[in-house]
C-alpha cells in the first residue's frame, strides 16, 4: 500500500486513501522524544499493513524533527522492534 496521503494535525498522524481515513496515530512530544501513544486502524482496513505504515510515518516524522521515536502503544512497539528501531 503506497498510494495514501498523510495528514498531520495536533498530535495526530492520519492516513487517507481516496479521502477515506485508514487509521491514525496519536503522539506527544517530550524532551528529545516523540512518544507514540496509540495506533488505530479502521476495521475494514485491518490486515492490510495500514498499522505498520502508520507507525513508519510516525518514525519518519520523529526523525525529521530530530526526535527519538518511543512507543507507548504495544502495537507500535512490535512494529518498531521488527524494524530494529528499539
Description:
By secondary structure, the protein is an alpha+beta fold. The chain has helices at 50-64, 74-82; strands spanning 5-9, 12-17, 20-30, 33-41, 68-71. It has a five-stranded mixed beta sheet with strand order 1-2-3-4-5. α1 links the parallel β4 and β5 (68-71). α1 crosses α2 (74-82). The termini are far apart.
User: What's the helix-strand series?
Assistant: EEEEHEH
Q: Treating each run of at least 4 consecutive H or I residues as one helix, how many helices?
A: 2
Count every beta strand, where a strand is a DSSP E run of 2 or more residues. Answer: 5
Provide the CATH architecture: 3-Layer(aba) Sandwich
Largest sheet entry: 5 strands, mixed
Spans where pLDDT lies below 50 across 5 or more residues: none
Overall 3D shape: globular
Strand content: 35-45%
Question: Which terms summarize this structure?
Answer:
five-stranded mixed beta sheet; Aminopeptidase; 2 helices; 86 residues; single chain; alpha+beta; globular
Amino acid at each position: 500500500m503506497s498510494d495514501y496521503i498523510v495528514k498531520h494535525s495536533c498530535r495526530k498522524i492520519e492516513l487517507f486513501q481516496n479521502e477515506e481515513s485508514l487509521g491514525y496515530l496519536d503522539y506527544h512530544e517530550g524532551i528529545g522524544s516523540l512518544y507514540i501513544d496509540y495506533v488505530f486502524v479502521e476495521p475494514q482496513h485491518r490486515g492490510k499493513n495500514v498499522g505498520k505504515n502508520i507507525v513508519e510515518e510516525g518514525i519518519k516524522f520523529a526523525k525529521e524533527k530530530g526526535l527519538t521515536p518511543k512507543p507507548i502503544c504495544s502495537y507500535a512497539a512490535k512494529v518498531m522492534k521488527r524494524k530494529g528501531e528499539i
